[in-house]
Amino acid sequence: QVQLVESGGGLVQSGGSLGLSCAASGSIYSINVMGWYRQGPGKQRELVAAVTNSGSTNYTDSVKGRFSISRDHAKNMVSLQMNNLKPEDTAVYYCYAILISTMTPRVEFWGQGTQVTVSS
Questions:
Q1: Which region, left, alpha or beta, applies to residue 107 given φ > 0 means left and ψ of -120 to 50 means alpha?
Q2: Angstrom distance (rounded) from CA 91 to CA 114
Q3: What is the pLDDT of residues 87-104, one digit of tens each?
């Protein structure tokens, strides 16, 4: 099958920086989109940033200018650099990918999530 494994996250003070990485592995034929969602306490899951296989990126308005998403196609990895973090960025961050698998018709896959906590 397909696995998405996240790394990074943790606790940081307001104004600080953190990086997240996600590696996709398994029965992957091609990956169309990789990105990150987050779900804060008492909030709905929201898209943070995404990058297509052509390099197009999309960011939610609240992180524009502070977060940067990048992708390593050769390694099937996506990274999210988060700068000038704010307490409202506190959330569980989930890696996701829309891909074509050689083993299943399923196209959307998720990581287990990693906690990011920003203290004021």
A1: alpha
A2: 8
A3: 999 999 999 999 999 998
Tell me the C-alpha distance between 60 and 104, whole Å.
30
Helices (H), 15-115: none
- Distance in angstroms (rounded) separating the CA atoms of residues 44 and 82: 20
Listed residue (13, 38, 21) closest to 91, CA to CA: 38
* Chain center to CA of 84: 17
Contact 51, 34 (CB under 8 A): yes
The residue among 103, 61, 60, 67 whose CA lies nearest residue 85 is: 67
CA distances from 62 to 31, 69, 91, 115 (A): 26, 14, 14, 18
| β-strand pairing of 57-59 with 46-52 | antiparallel
Of 58, 69, 73, 70, give the one whose Cα is nearest residue 28. 73
Residue range 77-87, pLDDT digits in tens: 999 999 999 99
